[in-house]
């Protein structure tokens, strides 16, 4: 059998992701070894339970974004959900082998996203601190705004007030304003040889003329014995991580699902069949029902309004026994009850109207929502406008915006234009947003964008009486198309935090099952659902 194009794309991307995880400077690794310290990923492996899975968030962060400063793999900080002493925890780990753990703008954005997920899912947070602080050449993009460095410490305080446990271990440098993070946590550990101070020896000498060595200024022994800042003084990384694990073990145990029941729950189709069902090179699309057969529990589907508004699929289902509502784009051509043909992946008025009603119903039932995006946008043209496409689209956006139940979005194909918004894109606060390796993000497709901008510039030239050079125009057209192609690449979006993770398609059911178990912890049962004004 010919290898599926989706499988080829997936293998290439996963190989590149593995390279990012392994990519650290030789000098950085040698420095950690010389200081008797583990690397960030060695610390990660020692912290989480043996043979447990770590769901990494943001491994593509900063991908190709700061090339003038050299590579910045994973933005110099590891974030993700791991199991420690049987408890699911959010882990935030500085990687001192990457720019000495300095915080770039995307590093900050990545940490803030991890904190938000932890806050919403009420996950204990463990910070392993080993950072030289803000990357000074880019300080204006890191320091002052509401989504910059200081927001991290504000979040520490808010999470503490909300009763979300936070543990911090200083395992290297913790300098300047970054020192507030560990001190704002519930428990603070520090290893021998680490440093915690608002200003290092050189800055102290320059500022006040005082000469002091690093240990006396902010060493672990000083903070444990004199300042009283440190709760646990540890001899080395190994002892520190063992202490962390034991402290986490005092937390209330997670409520686990019945494993014997979930083992018996299966899908209609094998998860591997996804690679034959979805073909990025096949423009005729696929039937969303076949895709769902690989993801949801067999026999659990109850399709909602199956004969109406077929451009969007809506239905109730279960994954690992957890009840959910599903909103997904239908990628094959459909026919309405009145005999009109609807293009696959395009949202029409009836589909938007149905989806809005379904989202409201899931909020009434307190069902988590799963959105599967493969959308080209809303239908345009005279008939579409007269059908009230804007009104119906606004209704869906209103319902999604005000939704109080947990939301998980997976981009399985295209995510274009306002379709991204209506199908719970990043701006609409999904608890998790994931993507397949073939996914594409943009206001519109590359060819459409190039044609549109080409036409606009041609009209402008004609209006101003300038001669139109067709040869130069074709070069311009191709440049625009290439730029859009680059920006549509899901790695481009993942680098900027538009998705939390790029997952392998055959892992969709497993990942959704794990994340649905986490979002059950969200505090939403006591909240009331209502929308603003909706035009009917």
Structure, explained:
The chain has 536 residues and is α/β, with parallel strands linked by helices. The chain contains 21 helices and 20 strands. α18 packs antiparallel against α19 (470-488). The two termini are 51 Å apart.
What labels describe this entry?
20 strands, about 40% helix, single chain
Walk me through the topology.
Elements: H1 5-22, H2 26-34, H3 40-47, E1 55-57, E2 77-84, E3 87-94, H4 105-121, E4 125-131, H5 149-161, E5 166-175, H6 180-183, E6 187-191, E7 195-197, H7 201-208, H8 214-218, H9 220-227, E8 232-234, H10 237-248, H11 259-264, H12 274-277, H13 288-292, E9 302-303, E10 312-319, E11 322-329, E12 334-335, E13 341-342, E14 346-347, H14 349-365, E15 369-375, E16 377-378, H15 382-386, H16 389-401, E17 407-416, H17 417-422, E18 432-435, E19 440-442, H18 446-463, H19 470-488, H20 490-495, E20 501-502, H21 508-519
Parallel strand pairs: 3-4, 4-5, 5-6, 5-7, 6-8, 11-15, 14-16, 15-17, 17-18, 17-19, 18-20
Antiparallel strand pairs: 1-2, 2-3, 9-10, 10-11, 12-13
Q: Which stretches of 5+ consecutive residues score pLDDT under 50?
A: none
* Largest sheet geometry: 8 strands, mixed
Q: Give the rounded overall mean pLDDT.
A: 93
Count of discrete alpha- or pi-helical segments spanning 4 or more residues:
21
Q: Find the count of extended strands (DSSP E, 2+ residues).
A: 20
Q: What's the Cα radius of gyration?
A: 26 Å
- Beta-sheet strand percentage? 15-25%
């Amino acid at each position: 059998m010919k290898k599926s194009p989706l499988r080829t794309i997936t293998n290439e991307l996963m190989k590149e992701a593995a390279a990012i995880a392994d990519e650290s400077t030789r000098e950085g690794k040698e420095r950690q070894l010389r200081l008797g310290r583990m690397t960030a990923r060695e610390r990660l492996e020692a912290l989480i339970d043996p043979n447990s899975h770590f769901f990494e968030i943001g491994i593509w962060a900063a991908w190709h974004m700061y090339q003038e400063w050299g590579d910045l793999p994973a933005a110099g900080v590891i974030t993700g959900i791991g199991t420690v002493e049987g408890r699911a925890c959010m882990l935030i780990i500085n990687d001192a082998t990457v720019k000495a753990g300095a915080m770039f703008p995307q590093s900050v954005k990545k940490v803030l996203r991890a904190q938000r997920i932890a806050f919403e899912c009420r996950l204990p947070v463990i910070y392993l601190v080993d950072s030289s602080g803000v990357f000074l050449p880019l300080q204006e993009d890191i320091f002052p705004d509401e989504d910059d460095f200081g927001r991290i410490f504000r979040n520490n305080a808010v999470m503490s007030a909300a009763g979300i446990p936070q543990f911090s271990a200083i395992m290297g440098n913790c300098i300047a304003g970054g020192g507030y993070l560990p001190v704002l946590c519930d428990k603070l550990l520090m290893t021998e040889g680490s440093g915690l101070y608002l200003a290092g020896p050189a800055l102290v000498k320059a500022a006040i003329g005082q000469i002091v060595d690093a240990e006396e200024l902010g060493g672990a022994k000083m903070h444990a014995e004199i300042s009283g800042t440190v709760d646990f003084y540890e001899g080395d990384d190994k002892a520190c991580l063992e202490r962390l694990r034991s402290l986490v073990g005092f937390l209330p145990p997670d409520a686990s699902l019945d494993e014997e029941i979930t083992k018996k729950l299966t899908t209609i189709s094998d998860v591997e069949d996804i690679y034959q069902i979805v073909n990025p090179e096949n423009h005729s699309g696929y039937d969303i029902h076949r895709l769902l057969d690989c993801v949801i529990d067999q026999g659990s589907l109850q399709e909602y309004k199956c004969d109406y508004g077929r451009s969007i699929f809506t239905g109730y289902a279960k994954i690992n026994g957890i009840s959910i509502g599903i909103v997904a784009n239908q990628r094959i051509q459909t026919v309405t009850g009145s005999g009109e043909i609807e293009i696959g992946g395009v949202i029409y008025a009836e589909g938007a109207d149905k989806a809005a009603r379904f989202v409201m119903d899931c909020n009434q039932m307190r069902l988590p929502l799963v959105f599967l995006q493969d959308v080209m946008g809303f239908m345009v043209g005279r008939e579409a406008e007269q059908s009230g496409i804007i009104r119906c689209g606004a209704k869906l956006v209103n319902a999604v915006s005000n939704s109080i139940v947990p939301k998980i979005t997976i981009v399985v194909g295209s995510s274009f234009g306002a379709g991204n918004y209506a199908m719970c894109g990043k701006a609409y606060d999904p608890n998790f947003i994931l993507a397949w390796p073939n996914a594409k993000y943009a206001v519109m497709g590359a060819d459409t964008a190039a044609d549109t901008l080409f036409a606009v510039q041609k009209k402008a030239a004609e209006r101003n009486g300038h001669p139109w050079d067709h040869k130069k125009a074709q070069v311009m057209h191709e440049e625009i198309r290439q730029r859009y192609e680059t920006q549509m690449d899901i790695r481009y979006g993942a680098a900027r935090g538009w998705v939390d993770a790029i997952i392998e398609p055959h892992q969709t059911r497993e990942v959704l099952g794990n994340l649905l178990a986490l979002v059950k912890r969200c505090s939403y049962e006591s909240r009331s659902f209502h929308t603003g004004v909706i035009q009917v």
